[in-house]
Amino acid sequence: MLTIVNRRPPILRAHGLWHLVSFGALLVTGACTFTPPERPSAVTLPPPAAVNSLTLDQYRYAVAQRITERNPSYVLKRAPQAMLRSLVVVAFTVNRNGEVVSSSVYRTNGDDDAEATALATLRRASPLPPPPPKLLNRLGQVEMMEDWLFNDDGKFQLRTLALPQAQAFD
């Protein structure tokens, strides 16, 4: 024989209030909400890339200054002309000591002389200033790019240091 045990308190069974109490408990727990703690907004925290970007910009500026200091006869002293002879983008890798360990033309308009000048002026500037440790990758190097802006006379400015380009043709 099976016996069923009713676990409801006798007073609630006697007066049929069990359903009313259950419904009330449901209302009370349903009214409770969980509010997660606030996360800091994106506005208050800088993105991870921005933490290093200022340092990278400063290092890029120091590298550009070194290139122009070591190659004064190739550097354009006035604003680049309106229609450039050539734009050469060079990709290069610098080790922790400032030595250029690799360099190559990344983009060009096909001007072989301008490409050769860009690569040669980078080599002449080596060693470059040592990069800040926080910019180094796991190999102890930093990879960069710089733009050489060439006028018709073969002189250049680096985009990092360049004066605003002329607006009218000479």
UniProtKB/TrEMBL annotation:
Keyword Mitochondrion: no
Membrane topology annotation: Single-pass membrane protein
GO cellular component: membrane
Pfam families the record matches: TonB_2
Domain TonB C-terminal: start-end pairs: 60-159
Single GO BP term: transmembrane transport
Subcellular location(s) of the protein: Membrane
SUPFAM superfamilies: TolA/TonB C-terminal domain
Major place of residence: membrane
PROSITE patterns with a match to the protein in the record: PROKAR_LIPOPROTEIN, TONB_CTD
InterPro entries: TonB/TolA_C (IPR006260), TonB_C (IPR037682)
Keywords: Membrane, Transmembrane, Transmembrane helix
Stated name of the protein: Energy transducer TonB
Phylogenetic classification of the source organism: Bacteria, Pseudomonadati, Pseudomonadota, Betaproteobacteria, Burkholderiales
